[in-house]
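Why do we bother with holo predictions? Because pocket geometry can differ from the apo form. Keep that in mind while you read this record for nicotinamide-adenine-dinucleotide.
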Amino acid sequence: MNTFQDKTAVLTGAASGFGLELARLAAAQGMRLMLVDIRDEPLQAVAAELRAQGAQVATRCMDVASAAETEALADETERRFGPVHLLFNNAGVAFGGLLWEHTERDWDWVMGANLLSIAHAIRAFVPRMLAAARADAAYEAHVVNTASMAGLLVTPNLGAYTVSKHAAVAISEQLYHDLLLVTRQVHAAVLCPYFVPTGIYDSERYRPAAMQREEATTTSQQLAYAAGEKAVLGGLVPATEVAQMVLDGVREQRFWIYTHPRAMRPVRQRMESMLAATNPRDSMASRPSATAAWREALGVKL
Ligand SMILES: NC(=O)c1ccc[n+]([C@@H]2O[C@H](COP(=O)([O-])OP(=O)(O)OC[C@H]3O[C@@H](n4cnc5c(N)ncnc54)[C@H](O)[C@@H]3O)[C@@H](O)[C@H]2O)c1
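The structure, written out:
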């Protein structure tokens, strides 16, 4: 896509982090925006900021895990703005801890927000994009899904988050191949960020009521939250740069959008280990004191 002027973008998770920064960037490029988030107050604040700069902005406060709400979103976007050119399936939540301590609700929450949201959006938007492509040879559209480096690597105590993000990578690559089979006008991409300072470490704050745990948070979950907060807030690449990487990736029609190329070394090691059929290496081997501290907190003696 060479120009974003007067094109339509649907951005989920637009009240904060990558979604917010991409909304700012896309508005500055003259895009019409449908901004989506589960939190209405910060969403309206973003919309007001961008409208004040002259952008055409609509909002929808909804849970991206809902298939029905996603279908309604696609209807409303088409009614207001016509065909969608950029769909950024980006809303997501963080949750870790030892796998056997996840409740059914934990799984539903994380897989709903991080994976099913993408599946619902593909079902609601892609057929409309294909129809727009058939009607107009000049039409072009991009679906960008936010996964994570946790979609390419496995580290201890990151539970459903890792599982959901591996699935987010897989659904994106599946979409890429399916689209390649049927069109040259609709494209897929996946964003795999490493640690970037955003609100992601604090997802628990807005977990929907129906997904709330009835059980107390476990020690492993507390460790995961503390580690996540430290790593995310210590991230050196700002969300503004990540948003620019997304637009550059779309412009250059790149499938893999990585934010920290130097963090790819463990991915290469993992791939090599898979090919050699050697057991996964201990990803915390280089940090024995962190491993010791976690084991002590968990009351484990090996
Ligand atoms: N920041 C990082 O270090 C990092 C690293 C890798 C991947 N990611 C991924 O990036 C994406 C964006 O996160 P971010 O870092 O900008 O965090 P963020 O918390 O700042 O933004 C996420 C937004 O998604 C919204 N949201 C959460 N659940 C939702 C739901 N069910 N329906 C609608 N909106 C919902 C939140 O309200 C929030 O505004 C997420 O998918 C996250 O997993 C982030």
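The pocket of nicotinamide-adenine-dinucleotide is lined by residues 12-13, 15-19, 37-39, 63-65, 90-93, 113, 146, 148, 193, 195-196, 198-200, 203, 206, 232, 235 (CB under 6 Å).
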